[in-house]
Amino acid sequence: MTGARDRVLDAYETLLIDHGPGSATLDAVAAAAEVSKGGLLYHFASKDALVTGLLDRLRERSAADADAIRTAPDGAVAYYLRTSAPGGGVPGGVTRTYLAVLRISEGSSTGRTIREVLAEVDADAFAALRAELDDPVLAWLAQLVGDGLYLRTLTGTPLPPGLGVEDLLARMRRYLPDAGS
Amino acid sequence: MTGARDRVLDAYETLLIDHGPGSATLDAVAAAAEVSKGGLLYHFASKDALVTGLLDRLRERSAADADAIRTAPDGAVAYYLRTSAPGGGVPGGVTRTYLAVLRISEGSSTGRTIREVLAEVDADAFAALRAELDDPVLAWLAQLVGDGLYLRTLTGTPLPPGLGVEDLLARMRRYLPDAGS
DNA sequence: GTCTATATCACGATAGAC
DNA sequence: GTCTATCGTGATATAGAC
């Protein structure tokens, strides 16, 4: 029965995204995961261990997502933009974990390794996009557009009225190699 | 002599960007601004008031920056990308204030208004870019690329080796109306 | 207006029962 | 393995001297 570990990480993710790092206390995480504080600290001996656990999850999911980008039926760019847009993340995918980690990129002792993991995730996605696009500048452009959507998701800013991810894709397809329907 | 207020806000910004919200305590801000804690609390009666002060500053600077985007000699897109890229912010400009506010977008009592201000800033920049580009989809694309660069600045992720903002601009100019040299 | 001292409270972490 | 109870620390905020 190690499912409790994952429940704790899920709860931590949700609290970070919905209410920020200030509200993601050990008490709050334990309550949301429906374990006691002692129970939480049995699985994660300290708050740093909890952060490390989330970083490990992010690395795993990023590697899996890089494969998903490469094998997406409608093309790498379409997949990346879709999953970056608000509400586009799939359950168990990188998106939510990434957003959660973004919230804790402070300058503390763990701050350095957090940045390293975020750089890894970035490099994973860039490599996956390059596999389809070949041209590094185009791949970077596509990634930055997706990251811009990420930022919107992070801040909770709604999309401009009348515009959607489909419009971006339709416009970008003019300049990109054909990538499916 | 209201210069102390600005010194406090400058110090708060710097602490948020360099060490995160967890380290931006009243003590730390007061020390960095070279006033006593009591002196700080004279100008900002609570931490919420300090946050509100930073939000007001962000709104002012966003309005000023929208004008700067519109009148930039090398074009709106070039200006926006330049100032969004790591190290591209000018002293007293929006960039640093924006990054600082991003660090405190928690779900506290002030959380709601923070999101509203961030949405305003976003709308300001979008309108300014549209003034040059006319096509809303292209304007949004350009803004998202810039926001992607913002996100990199936020996370501290270095640019892909061998690539720079000039490459992005050179590539995008093929699809944009001519906007200066 | 600006300072020191202090009250109050919440968080992280530990100890030990079950 | 999971719980309750509790300690120590550090943060915000207040009171009041200068």
Automatic annotation (TrEMBL), chains A, B:
Q: Does the keyword DNA-binding apply?
A: yes
DNA-binding region as annotated in the record:
25-44
Q: Taking every annotated instance into account, which residue ranges of this chain make up the domain HTH tetR-type?
A: 2-62
GO MF terms held by the record: DNA-binding transcription factor activity; transcription cis-regulatory region binding
Its ancestry begins with: Bacteria, Bacillati, Actinomycetota, Actinomycetes, Pseudonocardiales
* UniProt KW keywords: DNA-binding, Transcription, Transcription regulation
Name of protein: TetR family transcriptional regulator
For the keyword Transcription, the answer is yes
Signal peptide from the UniProt entry: none
